[in-house]
Specification:
The chain is α/β, with parallel strands linked by helices. The chain contains seven helices and five strands, in the order H-E-H-E-H-E-H-E-H-E-H-H. Bound molecules: D-ribose.
Length: 157
């Protein structure tokens, strides 16, 4: 279910965050989204001094849950640590995506509310294109996907 309407863009507030290993990519995403007209909040970090990825993951995850932002985009070196940490926030479904197809399915099947990318690993597909693809799609709402997500939510509670 593709939704590229102006209304959708106007209603979105996207939070971006990274540890020290993903600053370049996080900044590229931030600038790209701003240029495209999205409202974007930068959760940092902006300085290469090493930090702990759970701090950024939890800040962005909690902002999604409290509805300060609509969705989040997180980066760390591999994307793994920050995914693990973000997924500990109740209600977060953070998806580490290395392709446009994974980005699309993480929305339509998994209703991911955070997209995660790798800042240091060279992935075959352009990360900005992965972000664009992720933002194009919404959850399909199909019963089987809702049921599966419901099982995760039940386990969490
Ligand atoms: C930081 O050096 C690195 O461990 C972190 O960015 C990430 O890759 C962890 O999963």
């Amino acid at each position: 279910m593709e939704n590229t309407s102006k209304n959708k863009k106007e209603n979105l507030i996207i939070g971006v965050g990274t540890d020290h290993a993903g600053i370049k990519l996080k900044d590229a995403i931030f600038n790209h989204l701003k240029e495209k007209g999205y409202e974007v909040i930068n959760f940092g970090v902006d300085n290469p001094t090493p930090v702990d990825y759970p701090d950024i993951a939890i800040a962005v995850g909690e902002a999604v849950i409290s509805k300060k932002i609509t969705c989040g985009i997180l980066v760390c070196g591999t994307g793994i640590g920050i995914s693990i940490a973000a997924n500990k926030v109740k209600g977060i479904r953070a998806a580490l995506c290395i392709s446009k197809n994974a980005a699309k399915l993480s929305k339509t099947h998994n209703n991911a509310n955070i997209l995660v990318l790798a800042g240091r690993d060279n992935v075959a597909e352009d990360p900005i294109a992965i972000v664009e693809e992720w933002l194009k799609f919404d959850f399909s709402g199909e019963e089987r996907h809702q049921r599966r997500i419901g099982k995760i939510t039940s386990y969490e509670t």
